[in-house]
């Protein structure tokens, strides 16, 4: 999975290709409508107020992709929250150099290139006061896949048989994999599979180490462990995304597809506490966006001069973002904090 997604030349995330939107393989919330970034900007501004209006206030977007979120966030804050915009220091993290170049091109077209600091990873800057934000990032971290075979835990490996890649059972690769299963999926049944995302357990301490004071917002596919590792998911959650369709055909076109597995948010909460991040709240994207938009009846949805048809189209896109049978409940929102006593956030009103 690491090779298919992050190989320097052939990895899916390292190539100069459209990954999201109509021409890509899947839609993110930022692809659908700017209101997603606008409501997140309202939440970021409230965090800035809670922290005492620091200047600079760093907003670190991890996995900035096409740059749509950054563009919409910065454009809207400049026009609507000038005091917050003046204090804002925006960091966009994207590992692939080709993707960073395309991201910068999009920001330059919006005359925002000088407003964003691009980086390959968060190791490139010192600890900051502000917020770390990711949307559909951690679900694409490489995972181990574990099954129970003959009453014992086995790890599923990939090997070659002639010209084909196939699965092969073997011993667990390290003790951390066994400990993860014992902690979060100890009721794993014979023949069932679970994904073990040790990369996420290494990622959250690195984020905590770069946050002097502030918040971490993680939005992604997934759930708490008790709802994620259940009998109704015998094959686990690992999927291929290509051309807006999903499959379990992992091996036919490596490097050409997105690979994703649902995130165990409980593991981020537990590991976060161990490295200084306190639990703020956990909710669905539906409830998070509803709480942020209800104060002004989602007036942020519309642009000046729109006709009724354009407003209707905007409402339909908002509906998709918050639909309880789609993105609204599939995506969860985890907020953690550091150096802030018992913060109360508008987005977590209905947690």
What features would you describe in this structure?
This protein has helices spanning about 1-5, 30, 35-50, 70-80, 80-85, 95-110, 175-185, 200-210, 225-230, 265-275, 285-295, 310-320, 325-330; strands at about 55-60, 90-95, 115-120, 130-135, 145-150, 150-160, 165-170, 195, 210-225, 240, 245, 260, 265, 280-285, 330-340. With about 350 residues, the protein is of the alpha/beta class. It is globular and about 60 Å long. The relative contact order is 0.14. The model has no long low-confidence stretch (mean pLDDT about 95).
Keywords:
351 residues, globular, four-stranded antiparallel β-sheet, alpha/beta
User: Using DSSP, what is the number of strands?
Assistant: 15
For the record, give the distance between the C-alpha atoms at the N and C termini, rounded to a whole number: 33 Å
Query: Could you list the spans in which at least 5 consecutive residues all have pLDDT below 50?
Result: none
What is the average of the pLDDT values?
94
Helical residues, percent: 25-40%
Global geometry: globular
Rounded to an integer in angstroms, the radius of gyration calculated over CA atoms is 20 Å
Secondary-structure element order, as H and E? HHHEHHEHEEEEEHEHEHEEEEHEHHHE
Strand content: 25-35%
How many domains, as an integer? 1
